Amino acid sequence: MSTGVVVEDDVAEQFEDFKLKKGEPLRFFIYKVSKDKKFIEIEKKGTYDKTYDDFVGELPEDDCRYGVVDVDFESADGRETSKLVFISWNPDTAAVRPKMLYSGSKEAIKSALNGVGIHINATDYSELDFETAILPVVKKFA
């Protein structure tokens, strides 16, 4: 299902810099659908000193968002490493229309964020818990 929502050009451009660690070092991006429901745009950026918990704290409790976060962790062999994780935040408490709009527009942003191999769909904060939900998934790709 496509909604006709398109990704703004600067989303992909800034993501490429983020992925290649060019320019300002960042920890995460949060994206939203514009008020006119035509574009996906950058809503917030988290500086590199922010944490995964800061990222989760920036997600609205009752509205949908997309996000990409650079997750630092220790691999099974003891190496410090990181992975980029795409998160589709579609909380149960959100209204039906935004949930449908974000669900139907997810492929557009996923295709613009080339190089993110880990995709997580979350509908409540327990599905964003670092130790129980995120870390086991990223460790599979380390």
Automatic annotation (TrEMBL):
ADF-H domain location is: 3-138
Keyword set for this entry? Actin-binding
From its record, what is one biological process in GO terms? actin filament depolymerization
Q: Which Pfam families match?
A: Cofilin_ADF
Instruction: Quote one Gene Ontology molecular function term.
Output: actin binding
InterPro entries hit by this protein: ADF-H, ADF-H/Gelsolin-like_dom_sf, ADF/Cofilin
User: What CDD domains is this protein classified in?
Assistant: ADF_cofilin_like (cd11286)
Gene Ontology CC annotations of this record: actin cytoskeleton
Family the UniProt entry places it in: Belongs to the actin-binding proteins ADF family.
Query: What is the protein named?
Result: ADF-H domain-containing protein
Native organism? Helicotheca tamesis
